[in-house]
Design a protein that fits this description.
Length: 553
């Protein structure tokens, strides 16, 4: 869905003004800067949409740059998954995939330049000592005893840190700014720490790694990013980025902060999502219950619906929580147009049409999607014995029950009107068979019977039915705000019934599906073929129900 109205969001207003002032020679160049320490989640979708989408609108470019400054938490598995997810979402980055680690040499040279200016130093204090000297928001910090080392000594120590002469934790590089600044981020922040670990891109080349705040603004600058869009919590970091850039006299991108996406019933932190995976609360990052791009893809959420959702959410300067039903609405909206209709019975009970000839089979022609006639039609077998949904029959039905009950008429979708005359039960009183008669001249499309039926039921012909494993998902968290409780862990709010596995009966047409194909099981919801599905063992994920049923619970 493209915006029809010409209204501009606040980011576009800033860009419009920059363009009219001739800033950056009219270039618009954004970047999406994930840290490869987890799989992308729905919050990242918003950031991807804003960064790539905004540049696209202005004919600009977007870099994909991995902010890979912390090798301990990072892995190529995450690099690969993030690339795959962005492509699947429908966006293309400019040129090659970039890494902050591409700039480690340049950042090191910048550190030397700052030291030479007397604006950075090597500190031998421990992490605890540095924290203790930091002060508080209302009290100034204190200068480190190493703050006034000579330039020559600092340069010598930096090089030896780089060469691996010192142990982890024994020294850091700090910017020399202002230990009493009201903005704590300017109280001589760390630029480098010693880490003797292998990096997924640079291998064993480095014994020191840059801090995110040192690397991030400079990476943007090196790439000539014009508009560096980030979330609100980085607003207080902006003076630090600008301090570095001004001291080094290099290009200064404009940082623009927007609110994070927060979704009800959802957590959005790679670290916490990783815990769900590692502690096996879910079956991997791409578990269809996860708010990850890979989970949502596997569940059957179309990429288009995620883009539409991100557009609907928009950009704002104030944090707020979006109702997860808006996401589900966007999913239904897309699938309604794209998903072929089929019949599947999730909780089958046998129905016998006692006056229909034994052994006879009719092949009914059904249109695949009334919203899209290009999807054509298919043949659906009809016979004497059918499965219908157990909940579609009631023995003692109230007046308003327009489905099947003794003495009542209903239409079988695309077929005949039937009337129920008998039920068979087992010893415990559970209905095992429903006996009906049909009106032979009531066939859909050529009905001359004059018989009325209020409801229409879906069905599957028993001799033609195919078994399918169906995974029904409910919300992963049963609380609207799993992170919003003091003294309670988000894991306490995991919904123990978030996954139910059943065996459904589906029409034979579904024998030839492949993973990620999506269908509407008429009256039951949207279902996507799971990665685990094979022709011998079909597996479907329920993507979303047809209506928002949650509110009624
Ligand atoms: P997390 O807390 O989940 O680890 P992060 O911000 O640390 O998220 P990054 O990999 O650094 O993850 O994120 C890449 C980009 O996505 C950043 O620009 C970040 O601001 C943005 N982003 C992350 N979460 C959200 C969100 N919920 N809404 C909007 N943008 C987000
Ligand atoms: Mg992070």
């Amino acid at each position: 869905m493209e915006t029809k109205k010409e209204s501009r969001n606040f980011i576009e207003l800033i860009i419009d003004e920059d363009l009219s002032n001739g800033k950056n020679d009219g270039r618009v160049h954004t970047r999406f800067p994930p840290e490869p320490n987890g799989y992308m989640h729905i919050g990242h979708v918003k950031s991807v949409y804003v960064n790539f989408g905004t540049a696209q609108k202005y004919g600009g470019k977007t870099n994909l740059r991995f902010d890979d400054t912390n090798p301990i938490a990072e892995d190529v598995e995450y690099v690969d998954s993030i690339k795959k997810d962005i492509e699947w979402l429908g966006f293309k980055w400019d040129d090659d995939v970039l890494f902050a680690s591409n700039y480690f040499d340049q950042l090191y040279d910048y550190a030397i330049a700052l030291i030479k200016k007397g604006k950075a130093y090597v500190d031998d204090s421990s992490a605890e000592e540095i924290a203790a000297m930091k002060g508080t928001p209302t009290e100034p910090g204190t200068d480190s005893p190493y703050r006034n080392r000579s330039v020559a000594e600092n340069l010598d120590l930096l090089e030896r840190m780089k060469n691996g002469e010192f142990d982890e934790g024994s020294k850091v590089i700090r910017a020399k700014i202002d230990m009493s600044n009201a903005n704590m981020h300017l109280r001589d922040p760390l630029m480098y720490r010693i880490r003797k670990v292998k990096h997924h891109q640079t291998g064993d080349a480095w014994n020191i790694y840059p801090m995110y705040d040192w690397a991030h603004g400079l990476s943007d600058s090196i790439e000539g990013i014009t508009h560096s869009i980030c979330t609100l919590e980085f607003e207080v970091h902006r003076p630090l980025y600008e301090w570095f850039l001004n001291e080094l006299e290099v290009f200064c991108p404009q940082q623009i902060e927007m609110a994070r996406l927060n979704l009800s019933y959802t957590i959005m932190s790679k670290r916490r999502l990783k815990k769900l995976v590692e502690e096996h609360h879910v079956n991997g990052w791409d578990d269809p219950r996860m708010p990850t791009v890979s989970g949502m893809r596997r569940r059957g959420y179309p990429a288009e619906s995620l883009r539409n959702f991100a557009q609907r959410v928009g950009v704002a300067r104030r944090n707020h929580v979006i109702d997860v039903s808006l996401l589900e609405f966007s999913v239904r909206e897309t699938l309604n147009k794209t998903a072929p209709r089929v019949m599947g019975v999730l909780d089958p009970v046998k129905l016998v049409i006692t006056n229909y000839p034994e052994g006879e089979v009719e092949h009914l022609t059904m249109i695949n999607n009334p919203e899209d006639e290009t999807q054509g039609s298919r043949q659906v077998p009809f016979s004497r014995e059918l499965y219908i949904e157990r909940e579609d029959f009631m023995e003692d039905a109230p007046k308003k029950f327009f489905r099947l009950a003794p003495g009542k008429n209903v239409r079988l979708k695309g077929a005949y009107i039937i009337n129920c005359h008998d039920v068979v039960k087992d010893a415990s009183g559970v209905v095992t068979e429903i006996h009906c008669t049909y009106y032979p001249d009531s066939k859909s499309g050529s009905d001359t019977s004059g018989v009325k039926a209020k409801g229409t039921l879906h069905f599957v012909s028993i001799p033609h039915a195919v078994d399918a494993e169906v995974r029904l998902y409910d919300r992963l968290f049963s609380d609207e705000s799993p992170m919003g409780h003091k003294d309670r862990d988000y894991l306490e709010f995991l919904n123990p019934n978030s996954l139910t596995v059943i065996t459904a009966k589906v029409e034979p047409h579904l024998k030839d599906v492949k993973p990620l194909d999506s269908f509407q099981f008429m009256r039951k919801g949207y279902f996507a073929v799971d990665d685990d599905s094979t022709p011998e063992h079909l597996v479907f994920n329920r993507t979303v129900t047809l209506r928002d049923g949650w509110k009624k619970k």
